[in-house]
């Protein structure tokens, strides 16, 4: 299995090949390299970048063709991977916790 195939499997949804290739290069890995266990964290972090890109993409419809992602599924997968790889910036943003901003004494 190549790292590209591993990344697509980790994302668990259909993604543009150019986005996958760019993300692999951004993470210092090239698509034809054989996937090994040592690359697991790199592939996981790369998948977070792709899912963030998908999360921010608008749904597109042109003629009879449309691209639409299930935002709940993307969010769920993104939260799982962000938690797994310690990306609290993402988990806090997508799943905010209520905070007390002021208190009133009765």
UniProtKB/TrEMBL annotation:
It holds the Pfam family DUF6706. This is Uncharacterized protein. It comes from Flavihumibacter petaseus NBRC 106054.
